[in-house]
Amino acid sequence: MAASSAPNVRAAEKPVMLVTHPLAAFWATAIGKKVVMAVTGAIMVAFVLAHMLGNLKIFAGPDEINAYSRALRTLGQPELGYGDALWIVRVVLLTAVTLHIVAAVQLTRQSWNARPVAYQYRKNVETTWAAKTMRWGGLLLAVFIVFHILHFTLGAVGFAPGQYRDLHVYQNLVAGFSVWPVAVFYIIAMAALCLHLDHGIWSFLQTFGWSTTRNDARLRTISRIIAIVIFAGFVSVPLSVMTGLVR
Ligand code: HEM
Q1: Distance 24 CA to ligand 1 centre (A)
Q2: Which residue of 12, 51, 226, 243 is surrounded by the most CB atoms within 10 Å?
Q3: Whose CA is nearest to atom 8 of ligand 1?
Q4: Contact 43/96 with Cβ under 8 angstroms?
Q5: Cβ distance 185 to 209 under 8 Å?
Q6: How much distance in Å is there from the Cα of 30 to the middle of ligand 1?
Q7: CB of 73 within 8 A of CB of 84?
Q8: CB contact set of 162 (below 8 Å; sequence gap of 6+)
Q9: Contacts with 163 (C-beta within 8 Å, 6 or more apart), sequence order
Q10: pLDDT digits (tens, 9 = 90+) for 5-36
């Protein structure tokens, strides 16, 4: 009798297998997702700043910016192979973008589930235009990134056959922005990026705990200045091609 009941007792005592890795448990919380958004956002802001500065080399002429593009591929040699450093950056960025979007979607779902009925007195809730456009602006930026890689990295769209030349960034930029709807799309996307960063930078400074009631206005101004500098730096390229300053 004792022998036959033993397995049941053991089964009942078996602990419930709730394997929660600390990182998975952190990710499951709203604050965890906000921290992931802040860290990945900061990584992307650093990339976007560096990329904008790199693009400005177009004003130094074709040799300068084309050499810069080659230098990005030979970075880390001989320890790394040709293009390896660029691949590391791509993997980091892709991971950051994916985590940023997944966290944003899940946070949005959580807030909708918590409040299925919209606020009735939304006008009284302090918010900015930049804050209100985070979701739609973010979606536009995701579409932009896909188009941008197909355009300037692969030359698969926006160029006449044979027009796109690998490592000829200067010529590709001039040819690419000579198609005005494409140039206009870039300018609109950069305006969306500017709005996204205006709120996003301030938001991640808050998540990191750097905002206090005393310095909040200053942090908002710093975020706005960074967003405007990035916007101006990026749009200077399509605008210069459109106006014939760069050709
Ligand atoms: C007017 C704005 C922009 C211009 C003119 C521009 C131009 C370029 C060009 C010419 C390349 C190819 C560089 C090369 O092959 O060496 C490139 C690559 C890239 N750009 Fe931009 N870019 C702009 C905005 C952005 C923004 C806002 C982002 C991100 C949010 C971005 C993300 C990337 C990425 C990830 C790559 C590398 C893709 C790869 O090689 O895998 N770009 N960009």
Answers
A1: 32
A2: 226
A3: 152
A4: yes
A5: no
A6: 32
A7: no
A8: none
A9: 155, 175
A10: 444 545 445 555 566 899 999 999 999 999 99
123 CA to middle of ligand 1, Å? 38
**Pair 206, 215: CB distance under 8 Å:** no
* Cis peptide upstream of residue 78 (ω within 30 degrees of 0): yes
The reported pLDDT for the residue numbered 16 is 58
**Residue 115 pLDDT level (bands cut at 50, 70, 90):** low
Q: Where are the beta strands (DSSP E) in the chain?
A: none
Q: Which of 62-71, 109-118, 165-174 has the lowest mean pLDDT?
A: 109-118
Do you know the residue count of the chain? Answer: 247
pLDDT of residue 230: 98
Q: Which residues of 46-72 are buried (b: 16+ CB within 10 A; e: fewer)?
A: eebeeebebbebbeeebeebbebbeee
CATH number, span 30-242? 1.20.1300
Within 6 Å (CB) of ligand 1, which residues are found?
48, 51, 55, 69, 72, 90, 93, 145, 148-149, 152-153, 169, 173, 186, 190, 193, 234, 237-238
**Alpha-carbon gap, residue 99 to 104, rounded angstroms:** 8
Q: Which residue is closest in CA terms to ligand 1's atom 14?
A: 69
